[in-house]
Amino acid sequence: MTGYTEHLIRVPDDLGIYARDYAPHGAKSGRTLVCLHGLTRNSADFDEFAPAMAARGHRVLAFDMRGRGRSGNDAQWQRYMPPTYAGDVAHCLTALNTGPCIFVGTSMGGLITMILAATAPQFILAAVLNDVGPVLNAAGIARISAYVGKTGPFASWDALKDAIKAAQGALFPGKDDAFWEKFARRTGRQRSDGQIEFAYDPAIARVFAEAPAGPAPDLRPLFSALAVKPVLVVRGADSDILVPEGVAEMRRLKPDLQVVEVPHVGHAPTLSEPEADQAIARFVAALGGNRL
């Protein structure tokens, strides 16, 4: 039993976009949560969070962006960009007839959410931004750029687990072997030759490698478009992506911003931590029942 049904939705350029669809349990809220993962991740990132929210009466959709997980790879790597992903999500939500949704965006998923707020605001009821905002720390971006595209292969699941722990152990201090095993299973896949690789198209790294030099684009107009909606920010206390100054700028742009910090976690919280889980549950409940 997976606890979800599966969709493969064809977007206009004929790529298939995969989604997990968790049905609500018990008293139905009428709300749909849309979970969008980070740069090198996939819908499995939410395999604890999504069932927990479904158990509270919400429908939960978790997508694989193009080039990740079970979605199709794009032969044109230049399209591996957040505006393309936002278009894919909008197309899929239209196909699924969801109405306005509560977005839960981790890292890149939060950037996609901000783009949708500017380009297709009818889909957004409210948003949870997980360790991301309009002002991102350059050191954290450089750290991510250094590893993206290095997909393997690895000789075994244990080898992948060990590689992940070596690279990211400082972001999740004190976690046991079971945590890292689960991390590897969420982010990897087994190839037909039995070897293991990260579950994404390495071509997504070309966007970083071939980006023109110069300052990062100003994302504050996108955040301002989202700021008219209720927004909760989840920040890892040790994050090198969303630093305190970034949160302060978000508060300046949106004084009623809600913020929760997850202790002893870097980029990015899994959202299964009690602090994150409880804050998101309260945030969603405060929005009231059923659709607008």
Task: Average the pLDDT over all residues and give the rounded result.
Answer: 95
Strand content: 15-25%
What Rg is obtained from the alpha carbons, in whole angstroms?
A: 18 Å
CATH class membership of the largest domain: Alpha Beta
With strands numbered from the N-terminus, the spatial order across the biggest sheet is 1-2-4-3-5-6-9-10
Q: What kind of sheet is the major sheet? A: 8 strands, mixed
Low-confidence stretches: none
Structural class: alpha/beta
Give me the CATH superfamily of the largest domain. Answer: Alpha/Beta hydrolase fold, catalytic domain
Tell the overall outline.
globular
- What level of helicity do the residues show? 25-40%
Q: Distance between termini? A: 33 Å
In DSSP terms (H or I, runs of 4 or more residues), the helix count works out at 10
Number of strands: 10
SSE order: EEEHEHEHEHHHEEHHEHEH
Number of domains: 2
CATH fold-level name of the largest domain? Rossmann fold
Per CATH, the architecture of the largest domain is 3-Layer(aba) Sandwich
Features:
292 residues; alpha/beta; Rossmann fold; 2 domains; eight-stranded mixed β-sheet; two-stranded antiparallel sheet; 10 helices; 10 strands; 35% helix; 18% strand
Summary?
This protein is α/β, with parallel strands linked by helices. It folds into two domains: 5-145 and 203-286, 3-Layer(aba) Sandwich (Rossmann fold), CATH 3.40.50.1820; 152-199. The protein is built from ten helices and ten strands.
